[in-house]
Structures are given as structure tokens and as C-alpha cells.
Specification:
Elements: H1 21-27, H2 30-51, H3 54-74, H4 80-99, H5 107-125, H6 130-138, H7 149-178, H8 182-192, H9 194-219
Helix pairs in contact: 2-3, 2-4, 2-8, 3-4, 5-7, 7-8, 7-9
């Protein structure tokens, strides 16, 4: 399977499949994906800690993200994730430059997390837990989650994991934003970013795998 065809995030979860460190790494984009995700934020933190200046702090991450995109084009690798990274970093930087407030570099992240939180909660209220819907779309064999009580409960529990992820990010980062604690905010974004995302994927995988395994054993008369 080519890189373009490699499923990522929730789409990479296969119901009944035992999660592994290698599968989790692939789900977050591999080593390259980890580097591309973390380095722009780390660049912001380092540059701001040294300069305390708006322009270099927000332009530096854009340069880093653009560099990843150039490398992908040169290597004729799938550029979609790098393009998304450049767009996100550039929009954040543009907003901060427009307002003149370095902390506004993080506002787009707040919007994304608030949207994710709202969607996850709404899916629970509508009795269509987000995790079950997403996995059902990308894994045809997982459509049975709607009919199986164990899998349906697992889908609800896994969706609450994502509610927790988005909620914790907002609860930690938003107060730091209003306190103008830029370095603490940048550090929190790094810690609560990819590491927490990977942890949420792992717990989701474990939650949706176990009910399917139990059901399979019951069907087999184990």
C-alpha cells in the first residue's frame, strides 16, 4: 500500500485487530509525521524563548513547515499532510501578525479543539458516537457496532476519550492564553498535541478491539 493509501488516525483502527506500537506509529504518520507535527511548534517555543519577538516566532514555524513540504515534493512523496501542516501554521501565524498578539498564534488550535469537542458531544447526544461512525465508514466489517451492545458501548466510551482529549486541551491552554503565558502555552500545546493524540488513538483501539474479540470468541463457542 502506498503512502497515499495508508489510513491514519481513527481510519487506521481495525476492529478486532491487536494494536501495536508499529501500527500506532503508522496511524500518526510514521516517524516523518511525528517530526512534521512536532518541529514547527518546537521552533516557535525556542525562537520565542530566545527573541521574545512576534515576527520571528510565528514566521519560523512557517518556514519549517514549508521546508517539509519542499522535501516531500523533491522526493515525490505524498504532500497532503505537509500541505495541511503549512496551511494550519500559516493561518495561525497570519492571524497573530494581523492582531499583533503572539498568543493569537494558538487561536486556530482552540477553534479546532472546540469544534472537535462539540462534534463528539453532539454525536453522543444523537446516539451516533463519533468513533463508531468513523470506524464504520473506513472499516466495512465494523458496521456491526450498531447491532452489538458490547461494541456500541465501546464506541460510546471511545468517543468520551476524545471528548476528554479536546476538553483537557481547552481547559489547560485557554487559561494560559488569557494569562499571556506564551512559553507555558507553547509547551502545553506540544505536550497535549501529538502525545495525547497518540494516547487517545491507543485507548480507542483497545476499547473497540476488546468487545469485538469477545464477540468473536462467543461466536466460535470459546
Amino acid at each position: 500500500m502506498s503512502e497515499a493509501q495508508q489510513p491514519r488516525g481513527l481510519a487506521a483502527i481495525r476492529v478486532g485487530e491487536t494494536p501495536s506500537p508499529g501500527a500506532l506509529l503508522a496511524a500518526v504518520g510514521g516517524v516523518r509525521g511525528v517530526i512534521e507535527s512536532l518541529l514547527p511548534g518546537f521552533a516557535f517555543l525556542v525562537i520565542f524563548a530566545i527573541t521574545k519577538q512576534l515576527v520571528p516566532s510565528v514566521i519560523g514555524p512557517v518556514v519549517v513547515a514549508a521546508g517539509f513540504l519542499v522535501v516531500r515534493f523533491v522526493q515525490r512523496s505524498t504532500p497532503l499532510s505537509a500541505v495541511a501542516g503549512v496551511v494550519g501554521v500559516a493561518l495561525s501565524a497570519g492571524f497573530a501578525l494581523w492582531t499583533g498578539n503572539v498568543n493569537d498564534n494558538f487561536v486556530l488550535g482552540f477553534v479546532i479543539n472546540a469544534a472537535g469537542l462539540a462534534i463528539a458531544l453532539l454525536s453522543i447526544l444523537l446516539r451516533r458516537p463519533l468513533v463508531g461512525v468513523v470506524i464504520g465508514i473506513f472499516s466495512p466489517n465494523a458496521s456491526e457496532w450498531r447491532r452489538d451492545d458490547r461494541m456500541r458501548r465501546a464506541a460510546y466510551a471511545a468517543t468520551w476519550v476524545w471528548v476528554g482529549l479536546f476538553g483537557v486541551r481547552l481547559l489547560v491552554e485557554v487559561p494560559l492564553y488569557f494569562a499571556s503565558a506564551t512559553e507555558a502555552l507553547a509547551s502545553a500545546k506540544l505536550v497535549l498535541g501529538l502525545p495525547f493524540y497518540a494516547a487517545a488513538l491507543w485507548f480507542t483501539w483497545l476499547l473497540v478491539r476488546r468487545p469485538r474479540s469477545v464477540a468473536s470468541e462467543a461466536d466460535a463457542g470459546v
